[in-house]
Amino acid sequence: MARRIHTFLALLVVFLMVLATNRIDQHHFEKAQETVNEVFKDRVLVQGYIFSIAQALHEKELMLVQQTYNQSKTTNAAIEDLIADFETTKLTRSEAELLSQFKSDFVALQKLETRSEQPEMVAQQQRQIADLKEYLSKLSEIQITESRNLTTSAQKSLDMSNMIANFEIFFLICIGIALQIIVFYKAKKSVKA
Length: 193
Known about the structure:
Blueprint: H1 2-66, H2 72-87, H3 93-113, H4 119-192
C-alpha cells in the first residue's frame, strides 16, 4: 500500500510539473501572439497612415505649383481623418510628441492656405509642407524601431516557449525511463522471491 501511495504521489508531482510548464508555455505563446497583433495594428497600419498623409502632402505641393486650390479642403479633410486614425493607436511618448507637433503645424498650414493667392504665402506653405514631411519621416523611423523591438520581444517569448517544450519532452523521457526501471526492477525482484 505504501508503494502505491508513493507511486501515486510521484505521478501527481509529474503531472503538476507538466501542467505548470504547460501554463508557462501558454503564457509565452499568448505574449508572442499579442505582440504580433500589436505590430500589425500599431505599427504596420500606422506606416500606411504615414504613407497616405505623405501622398496627400505631395498633392498639396502639386496644387501649389499648379496654383489649383480647389481640392485643398478635400485633401485637408483626408489628412485630418488619417491623423485621427493615427491617434487611436498605441503611441510611444516621442510618437505622441511628434504627432502633436505635426498637428499644430498642419493647422498653421491650413491658415496659410486661406491666403494662398499672395505670392509670399506660397513659399511659406512650401516650407511648412517640407517641415510636415520631416515629421512624417521621423514618425516612420519610430515605426521601424518599435516594430523591431516588438519582433525581438515576440521572438524571445517563442524561444522561451520552445525551450520549455524541449524541457518537457526531456523530463517526460526521464520519467518514462524511471518508470520502466521501477516496473522491471519490481518484476525481477518478485520473480526472484
